[in-house]
Amino acid sequence: MPQVYPVRRTKIERWKREALAEKSARAKAIAARLAKFYPQLKVPLAHRNTFELLISVILSAQCTDEAVNKVTPELFRRYPNPEKLAQADTGEIEQLIRTLGLFRAKAKSLKRCAQQLVEDFASKVPATMEQLTKLAGVGRKTANVILGHAFDIPGIIVDTHCKRLSRRLGLTREQDPTKIEHDLGRLLLPAEWTGFSHRLIIHGRKVCYARKPACGRCVLNELCPSAGVPGI
């Protein structure tokens, strides 16, 4: 039987306007509970090095990690480094990843990204936001995954789950991912950024579903202004 966490509406008012210090304290409490509930920080995308992680994250856009993990073993067997991928035929890349959404656009991005790595970065994955976001197929979300998990540089990963949960938790009112990243960054210390956003994503996949969040088994009930509210 899953543990049930009662919703106590007296603890926090829905969409109560909080002072920054108050909201920061609540964000830290949320981060602490998530860290206890999800103690391990491991990217679910199978990879052996930073280059493979970069390619896998690009491929994960609008599809599941499981789907990506099914195609990358053969992709990396054929193209184990930027040089090989940069020289690959786009049609062959498409065939290897055709089970993924947007496979044609992703194939072009992979080839161009590999070419950029070879031409501009000596075949090494760069370690700054500015350089990473110059690569084809790489936005701030992907860059923050690479920075946080490959280089241990703090970054807030704002995907659809992080966006949804940060709004439900009343930590931001923004819709734009970059603005959400800014809001969350003000509430937590940089050392918490990667772990907090990563765990928020996991929580969104396992508990706080988009259509019908499982509030009855959520460890964040007492800290969440949306807990038990229909249609949120």
What does this entry look like structurally?
By secondary structure, the protein is an all-alpha fold. The chain is 54% helix and 0% strand. It is elongated and about 55 Å long.
Structure described in brief:
The protein has 232 residues and is mainly alpha-helical.
Q: Would you identify the regions where 5 or more consecutive residues have pLDDT less than 50?
A: 6-12
The count of DSSP E runs of length 2 or more, i.e. the number of strands, is 0
Mean pLDDT value: 92
Helical amount among residues, as a percent range? 40-55%
Instruction: Write down the secondary-structure element order.
Output: HHHHHHHHHHH
CA(first)-CA(last) distance: 25 Å
What percent strand? under 5%
Count of helical segments? 11
Q: What's the alpha carbon Rg, rounded to whole Å?
A: 19 Å
Sheet/helix structural class: mainly alpha
**What shape does the CA trace take?**
elongated
The major sheet is characterized as: none
List key phrases describing it.
mainly alpha, 232 residues, 11 helices
